[in-house]
Model the fold of this input.
Amino acid sequence: MEKIKCVISYDGSNFSGFQIQPKKRTVHGELEKALQKMHKGEHIRIQASGRTDTGVHAKGQTIHFETPFIIPEVNWKRALNTLLPGDLYVNDVEKVPTAFHARYDVIEKEYRYYVWNEKETDVFKRNYAYQFPYPLDIKVMQEACSYLEGEHDFTTFSSAKATTKGSKVRTLYQLSCEKHGSEIEFIFRGSGFLYNMVRITVGVLLDIGQGRRSASDIPFLIEQRDRQLVGETIPPQGLYLWRVRY
Done:
């Protein structure tokens, strides 16, 4: 058996998330369908670095699977992309040691979130950025980002519906917020992420940017470990799983 690692991209707009679900179109489902065709009806199970929700995109999601086939990497890539739909693409294929695991061997993930900071709707951005029409103070948001970097218990900034057992402590190596024209780009690099952590955190940063909270509230919010202290989870379409490092 060979173990194959693939780096994939997808436009999450028309997927019901990554994870396989009955009667729903998912990234996982489309990948396994393509592999099943290649393996003449045999079910090939994939493992991913993690799941993404409905509407969330990926530039660099990573998966692995085991196969009895001995095929050059370039041929795997070509064959899979021939069978996959147009909103899902295999960027890179690599043979890896049998001990490799797409989920358990992750050392760092990078997510990006995009906000379209304009009053007028841009119909071409509606599936790829969160439109936020209110004025924002970027400098204050950048100050708030610095409070969130480092190792913290991120319970306040994760969904109360999260099924994660055990510690909610994670390390954010980088959290930046930059405005380019009308677009605001948030970059999160960390050891791991809790359910909805990026979307909840960006929501808090937008509150701070509007003056509804102050940047210095962040240490208090972290300390309280209470999801109810912060606002709602902002929409999924601005979120991208950008890169996974091993």
About this structure: The chain has a mean pLDDT of 97. The CA atoms of residues 162 and 242 lie 22 Å apart. Residues 2-96 form a domain with the Alpha-Beta Plaits fold (CATH 3.30.70.580).
